[in-house]
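As a warm-up, study this chain.
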Amino acid sequence: MKRFDELKSLVEGLEADFEKFYDKGNNAAGTRVRKGMQDLKNLAQDIRVEVQDKKNNG
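Now compare it with the structure written out below.
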């Protein structure tokens, strides 16, 4: 569950940058969103592997 909490925190932390990029056209915020989404992708993959290992190994 710790990793899931990390995932939620990451998404919540990106909220302000999403608003700045989409609502105000701030390109620097767009760069931060892209980096955050890459981090999110990597964390999600780590969680997938962890769940698969736990499932297979009991």
